[in-house]
């Protein structure tokens, strides 16, 4: 088994959720979603986890979250802050929103060695996704081929409103040919996707594969990330422009610099875009525990 790193993005503001959802308890003994992510990664053979957080939350993560599994996997911390940008850039006055998932990974790049998986802290991906990733890195030796683990859209939808998802289109060999970051909502009993970077709308089916930021990368991806961030950060930016991983992947594919293999997970994905999503997520975790997929007390 290769050394694999799990990178967990946990610096977002949770504006739709109405709070810091990364540390919201979801398990029967106060577990947060990241507890389950780390637990599954350890089971799949990962050897290190990097939490990307705000500096102000470091002591909380150390003392209340990571102390539970620090003896089972190597733990490191990276910080995402708005001032982590080139010296020649000034953000618009009043900017509070983080710069996006691509910037989060940019802030952690100096801690990453070798192959790694990057995920959201507030998404529950299930063990099969980590198993798929570990198998991919074990079997695929091409340095410029990466992985996206996807789910059918209906698995990732929220009954409480629109969601952002990367809509994935593949060729006959399941390599991604396009990956559009979209806002998806139900309109007149149809699922309408609005592409954020093309400003166009199209209808998708319920089983359309989408990404929820579960990507497997090699260290070579960090060079592309840095190049694309340099382009992004030096253009005129507003209060809400974001540097997003699906768009970076899209640019790399369009430039024929990378290939990304799409796999579909059999695990149950769960998330909490909205506060109203929380009760269903808690109930679903209880059901997984009853089925024996997770212990009642995760770290005992």
Structure in words:
The chain has 300 residues and is of the alpha/beta class. It has eight helices and 13 strands. The strands form two sheets. Strands 1, 2, 3, 4, 6, 7, 8, 9, 10, 11 and 12 form an eleven-stranded mixed sheet that branches. The protein has a two-stranded antiparallel sheet with strand order 5-13. Helix 2 (58-65) links the parallel strand 2 (48-53) and strand 3. The longest helix has 13 residues, at 127-139.
In short:
By secondary structure, the chain is α/β, with parallel strands linked by helices.
Main β-sheet, in a few words? 11 strands, mixed
Strand content: 25-35%
Number of helices: 8
Overall pLDDT, averaged? 90
The count of β-strands is 13
What class do helices, strands and sheet pairing give? alpha/beta
Radius of gyration: 18 Å
Distance between the termini: 25 Å
Weakly predicted, low-confidence segments: 14-18
Shape: globular
Q: What order do the helices and strands follow?
A: EHEHEHEEHEHEEEEEHHEEH
The helix fraction, in percent, is: 25-40%
Structure keywords:
single chain, about 300 residues, 8 helices, about 25% strand
Question: Helices and strands in order, then pairings?
Answer:
Blueprint: E1 5-9, H1 33-44, E2 48-53, H2 58-65, E3 74-79, H3 101-108, E4 116-120, E5 123-124, H4 127-139, E6 145-152, H5 153-156, E7 163-170, E8 176-187, E9 190-195, E10 200-204, E11 209-217, H6 221-233, H7 245-254, E12 259-264, E13 270-271, H8 278-290
Parallel strand pairs: 1-2, 1-4, 2-3, 6-12
Antiparallel strand pairs: 4-11, 5-13, 6-11, 7-8, 7-11, 8-9, 9-10
């Amino acid at each position: 088994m290769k050394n694999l790193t799990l990178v967990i993005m946990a610096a977002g503001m949770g504006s739709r959720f109405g709070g810091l959802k990364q540390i919201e308890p979801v398990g029967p003994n106060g577990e947060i979603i990241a507890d389950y992510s780390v637990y599954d990664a350890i089971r799949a053979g990962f050897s290190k986890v990097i939490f990307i957080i705000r500096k102000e939350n470091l002591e909380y993560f150390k003392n209340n979250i990571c102390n539970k599994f620090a003896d089972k996997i190597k733990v490191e911390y990276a910080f995402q802050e708005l001032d982590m940008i080139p010296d020649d850039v000034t953000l618009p006055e009043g900017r509070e929103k983080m710069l996006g998932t691509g910037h989060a990974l940019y802030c952690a790049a100096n801690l990453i060695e070798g192959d790694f998986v990057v995920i959201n802290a507030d998404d529950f991906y299930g063990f099969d996704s980590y198993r798929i990733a570990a198998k991919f890195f074990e079997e695929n030796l091409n340095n410029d081929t990466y992985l996206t683990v996807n789910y059918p859209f209906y698995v990732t939808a929220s009954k409480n409103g629109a969601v952002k998802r990367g809509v994935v289109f593949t060729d006959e060999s399941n390599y991604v040919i396009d990956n559009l970051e979209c806002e998806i909502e139900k309109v007149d009993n149809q699922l309408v996707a609005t592409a954020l970077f093309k400003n166009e709308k199209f209808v998708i089916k319920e089983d359309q594969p989408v990404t929820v930021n579960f990507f497997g990368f090699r260290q070579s991806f960090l060079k592309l990330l840095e190049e694309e961030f340099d382009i992004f950060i030096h253009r005129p930016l507003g209060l809400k422009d974001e540097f997003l991983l699906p768009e970076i992947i899209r640019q790399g594919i369009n430039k024929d610099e990378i290939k990304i293999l799409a796999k579909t997970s059999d695990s149950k994905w769960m998330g909490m875009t909205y506060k109203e999503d929380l009760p269903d997520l808690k109930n679903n975790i209880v059901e997984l525990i009853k089925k024996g997929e997770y212990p009642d007390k995760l770290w005992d």
